[in-house]
Write a structure and sequence with these properties.
alpha/beta; five-stranded parallel β-sheet; four-stranded parallel β-sheet; 11 helices; 11 strands; globular
């Protein structure tokens, strides 16, 4: 089963009242990237009909110490409370979307999927919906509280110690931009470089100009070039755990299961004593 839905497929699900749509618009908002901005105002101005807004900062992450990273993994109870606020019940189909290349939507996809839900991401996101002439509504959507029960959302998340030794048995993907991986620049975290043994494969390499994923054969070639083949253990990390979820989505679409180091580079670079590699 695909982990994506097209605009036409989503429109059909909405007509059949067989889906709960979750708007996860969010992005780094200022040069240097030290503050974030959710898309609540944009959501209120226009969104997919029936979509409920998810606040990434308060519902899909939690506040923590610097040595936990910029977007620590939320508890299962926190995500479950959010999902119930969205009106979710056991057995519901969920579709997430954003306007940032699928990154925030993939964070919601990862957590809800770990929790045991049937969840997919809108391929191409908000822009694809608008380009296709999809219906748009404004204002806030609220539902009666749901009763969904989630499994452990941290089941496939690596600790910092597990991430450190992962390259010895599998491929640890660093999905940030190449210049950050090489340690030439670091706009967000205190130290530049990457986890020793990691392989750089920016998640943007999997996305077409229109924001949709590239064809399956191209995706598989990208992963093969990074040393990932059938049966290879794979994990991904990024700056703070958001972008890595997108790579996990792409891997899942290619039939490859992956773990995520949610603390990512923001945790690694804020933890004294961790080795740092630079260059290719």
């Amino acid at each position: 089963m695909s982990h994506l839905v097209s605009v036409n497929e989503l429109a059909e699900l909405i007509r059949d009242e067989a889906v709960r749509v979750v708007d996860v618009r969010w992005r780094l908002s200022v040069p240097g990237g030290r503050s974030q901005q959710d898309g609540r105002e944009e959501y209120l101005q226009g969104h997919i009909p029936g979509a409920v807004f998810a606040d990434l900062e308060s519902e899909l992450t939690r506040h923590g110490r610097p040595d936990e990273g910029r977007h620590p993994l939320p508890s299962t109870a926190q995500v479950q409370d959010a999902a119930r606020r969205w009106g979710l019940n056991d057995g519901d189909v969920v579709v997430t979307y954003d306007d940032a290349g699928g990154l925030p939507a993939a964070r919601a996809w990862w957590l809800l999927r770990q929790g045991g839900l049937d969840v997919r991401v809108l391929d191409g996101g908000w822009q694809a919906w608008k380009d296709a002439g999809g219906d748009v509504e404004s204002g806030s959507v609220e539902y009666s509280p749901g009763t969904v029960t989630l499994a452990d959302v941290s089941a496939d998340s690596l600790s910092i110690d597990e991430a450190a030794v992962f390259p010895a048995s599998g491929v640890l993907l660093d999905v940030r931009a190449p210049e950050r991986f090489r340690g030439e620049t670091e706009p967000l975290d205190p130290i530049a470089g990457h986890i020793p043994g990691a392989v750089n494969l920016p998640t943007g390499k999997h996305v077409a100009d229109d924001g949709t994923l590239l064809d399956l054969e191209t995706l598989k070639k990208n992963f093969a070039d990074a040393g990932i083949e059938g049966g290879t253990p794979v994990a991904a990390y990024c700056g703070s755990g958001i972008t890595a979820a997108h790579t996990a989505l792409v891997l899942a679409e290619a039939g490859i299961d992956a773990k995520i180091f949610h603390g990512s580079w923001s945790q690694w670079s804020n933890t004294p004593g961790r080795a740092v590699a630079t260059g290719e």
